[in-house]
Amino acid sequence: MRFSSLVSGLLPVAHFLLLACGAPEPDPVVPDTTATAPATASADPTAVPSVEATASTAATASPAASAAAAVPAPPLPQGLKVLIIGDSFAEALGAGLRTRESSTGLKFFLRGEKATFIPEWAGPKRGVAGMMVSLKPDVVVIALGGNELAMTTPDIRGPKVKELVGLIGSTPCVWVSPPLWGGGKDNGLLGVIHDNSKPCRYYDSTLLAPDVPRGSDKIHPTADGQKKWADYFLGWLQKEQEKAAPFSLKPRPAAE
User: Fold this and answer.
1) CA-to-CA distance for 168 and 59, rounded, in angstroms?
2) What is the pLDDT of residues 102-129, one digit of tens each?
3) For a disulfide at 144, which of 86, 90, 101, 126, Cβ 3.0-4.6 Å?
4) Side-chain half-sphere of 193: how many Cα atoms within 13 Å?
């Protein structure tokens, strides 16, 4: 028998004796791949962050994003000249606005007249064209229509609404609807004003009508109601301004 054959035959016996004596079996050889792996995950600038890391970052950034979204609109420019024309509701809104002159730095010119109608203001009788030249307002507020809510043919007011808006020219303007009373009765006039007052913005006071305290006639706002209405309107005007100098309003959106 050759020596090599003898050794080959004894190897299995030696392996058995080692196991019987409690010697551990050698571990299998595993290829070493650590040389090609990055030292740390952060060492790879292109690594995609984990879901947990992304969620943590979003949670950290969310308050800042929310704060940015909640930043209030810039204040209306000091010295802004606001002309208010119309009927007794214009007088009421104008009275409320005047109480805010010192706190806002705005200048309000009130030219309202009780028991007046849209055609009067659209013609030469009320002198709107002259006011535009003499006062040079930065924005015009029209509060008209309250005395015409009982008309049976409100459509005839459409051309007059357009005529009045035409007198204002390119000056920013807002048509403020009357805050309805007595259950919110409307004969269709508000829709006529809405459809014919472009490019003026349209401020729908009916949305806040329930919050406006009324006087003994249950129609016109009390002094507190005038201030509340004015504050609502000024907040809207501030939010809708596009730029301060020269003052302009955002274009009238399709939904308005």
Assistant:
1) 50
2) 999 999 999 999 999 999 999 999 999 9
3) 86
4) 26
Cα separation values, 178 from 114, 189, 209, 234, Å: 13, 11, 9, 16
Q: What percentage of residues in the chain have a pLDDT greater than 90?
A: 66
HEC readout, 144-166: CCHHHCCCCCHHHHHHHHHHHHH
- Domains of the chain in start order, with CATH, are 81-249 (3.40.50.1110)
**Nearest-angstrom CA–CA distance, 173 and 137:** 10
- Residue 122, CA atoms < 13 Å, CB-side half-sphere: 18
- Of the chain, the end-to-end C-alpha distance in Å amounts to 109
Residues 6+ apart with CB under 8 A from 42: none
Dihedral sign from CA coordinates of 87, 183, 227, 157 = negative
User: What number of CA atoms fall less than 13 Å from residue 21's CA on the CB side?
Assistant: 7
> Of 195, 185, 188, whose CA–CA distance to 165 is shortest?
195
Tokens of 147: 């005395």
Give the containing element (helix H, strand E) for 143. Answer: strand 139-143
